[in-house]
Specification:
Layout (H helix, E strand, L loop, with lengths): L6 E2 L2 E2 L6 E5 L2 E8 L3 E9 L3 E9 L3 H12 L5 E4 L6 E10 L7 E10 L29 E3 L6 H8 L3 H7 L14 E3 L2
Antiparallel strand pairs: 1-2, 1-7, 3-6, 4-5, 6-9, 7-8, 8-9, 10-11
């Protein structure tokens, strides 16, 4: 049986994760009544929790995991299309590396929570990211980002629409891609 590949937002898995689970929840209230009796009240469906495990293997496995991690760092819900589950608007709430990753093998787990869309406001972050002059530069001009607390090359890659590998290539001064310092300027274009 040939299943369509799983996808979320702009990411498509090269092969489907090996383990899937889905947790359907219903909220129910229990009301005690006299003489040891009780009454149940159906409060409606809760959110579905969709979880799974998989691995990327072969040359570029860690790079593939980095692409998935960039999608994890994007804000807001997105369309989750799964070969067996019905499509859902969902939040990517968990991404976990299950063992020390190697360049040719990464085992991971993930979780998505379904969004019913009852809340359409966005939480506002305090301390929005500071951009240096030229960060909004059009076309092929150089753009730079001043690192603030919480920034990683993965989050910057997702924000500016480049791959982590491209950011490393643009910034030879960064000796360890997993460690960037607050206040450091990172070239993003």
């Amino acid at each position: 049986m040939n299943l369509t590949p799983m996808r979320y937002k702009s990411y498509t898995w090269p092969h489907n994760p090996r383990v899937y689970s889905i947790d359907f929840q219903r909220a129910v209230a229990l009301h005690k009544v006299p003489f040891g009796r009780y009454q149940l009240q159906d409060l409606g469906m809760g959110h579905r929790v969709m979880e799974g495990e998989g691995e990327f293997a072969g040359p570029g496995a860690y790079v593939e995991f980095q692409k998935l991690a960039c999608i994890f760092y994007e804000d807001g819900p997105g369309l989750l299309v799964h070969p067996l589950w019905q499509a859902a608007n969902a939040y990517f709430v968990s991404l976990r590396v299950e063992q020390a990753p190697r360049p040719d093998y990464v085992r991971y787990s993930f979780a998505f929570w379904e969004d019913y869309g009852l809340y359409d406001g966005l939480a506002v972050r305090t301390g929005e990211r500071a951009l240096t002059a030229g960060a909004e530069a059009p076309g092929g001009q150089t753009a730079r980002h001043r690192v603030v607390k919480g920034d990683t090359l993965w989050t910057l890659a997702g924000r500016y629409g480049v791959t982590p590998a491209e950011l490393v290539a643009l910034n030879p001064q960064i000796k360890n891609p997993n460690l960037i310092q607050v206040g450091e300027e990172v070239r993003v274009r």
